[in-house]
Amino acid sequence: MRLFYKGLIAISFLLIIAACGDTDSSEEGTDNGSNDGTNYSEAVDYTITGIEPGAGITVTTEKAIEEYENLSGWTLETSSTAAMVTALEEAISNEEPIIVTGWNPHWKFAKFPDLKYLDDPKGIYGEAENINTLAKNGLQDEKPNAYKLLDQFEWDVEDMEEIMYESQDTGDSIDEVAQRWVDDNRDKVDAWLEGVEDVDGVEVELASTPWDSERASSSVLKIAMEEKGFNVTVTPVDVAAVFQAVGSGDVDATAAAWLPFTHADFYEKVKDSVEDLGPNLEGAKIGIVVPSYMDIDSIEDLKPAE
């Protein structure tokens, strides 16, 4: 009997040791940055795949790398929006890890519905924000009907993403898809035009960034303004030049200002030289994005480069 109890005690002791070993293994998985033990930071070579240098989200992500201690040694790889999306598509097709800069509105969220934003505990990327319309000072007196139409222009995230995704899916230009959208959404367009008098070739120049989101808004706005007789030119430039052009009065307006977070630095430099007409789109968002098959939920789950 004594031998029996001694045997039970020995077995119990071994089970406790095994259990402790399992706990250590679980904690090691957490240290690697994911619940399943995968070191995603190492898997992506401590690199965030970004877009064009100087873009608002590029500037913000550079700040995030500085502010998050666990991103020490990380690299933001800048190139182009098209290159970022190509890398994302290739990774998803092979179910490989990838970390990219992301924003709504963008058609990739329609094509890849399982994308997710990583939580941002430090609030570097801010909450959901707006895309605002900015006009040069004096536009209301100089071109009152253009000012009124610009002030009344507003639509939804889904509207913009619909145009962007259809353009990607069909191969048609943003301008072609924007015309179809205007034809199919007369109630919204007519609200923009309400009370705006017809003009005879009044020239209006809009500054925009060369990204599909801003191409979509500029295209529908151009089509709507031309219905009232305006002669509209859309000039695509980088984001810093957008604010400089409106602030200096070289162009009349822009519908591409992401505020109050993404383009805050650019806006601060010209805020006394422009008039903010308020949001033309609410609920925009930026941040770090991963496919949902990656078992991480927060920027703080990432690990410093070794």
Description:
This protein is of the alpha/beta class and 306 residues long. The protein has helices at 2-31, 40-43, 56-67, 81-93, 108-111, 139-142, 144-152, 157-170, 174-184, 186-193, 212-227, 239-248, 264-270; strands at residues 47-49, 75-77, 100-104, 115-117, 129-136, 203-208, 231-236, 253-259, 274-291. It folds into 2 domains: 40-119 and 288-301, 3-Layer(aba) Sandwich (D-Maltodextrin-Binding Protein, domain 2), CATH 3.40.190.100; 129-283, Dipeptide-binding Protein, domain 3 (Roll). Helix 8 (157-170) crosses helix 9 (174-184). The longest helix is centred in the N-terminal third of the chain and has 30 residues, at 2-31. The relative contact order is 0.20. The model is unreliable at 1-30 (pLDDT under 50).
CATH H-tier superfamily of the largest domain: Dipeptide-binding Protein, Domain 3
The total count of helices amounts to: 13
**CATH level-3 fold name of the largest domain:** Dipeptide-binding Protein, domain 3
Structural class: alpha/beta
| Overall structural domain count | 2
**How many β-strand runs?**
9
The residue ranges in which pLDDT falls below 50 over 5 or more consecutive positions are 1-30
Question: Considering DSSP H and I runs of 4 or more, what fraction of the residues is helical?
Answer: 40-55%
Q: Based on the structure, what is the oligomeric state of the protein chains?
A: single chain
Shape: globular
Biggest sheet details: 7 strands, mixed
Instruction: Give the overall pLDDT as a whole number.
Output: 89
Taken in chain order, the helices and strands follow as HHEHEHEHEEHHHHHEHEHEHE
What is the CATH level 1 assignment of the largest domain? Alpha Beta
What is the level-2 CATH architecture name of the largest domain?
Roll
Indicate the radius of gyration in whole angstroms.
25 Å
Distance between the termini: 56 Å
Q: What share of residues are in beta strands?
A: 15-25%
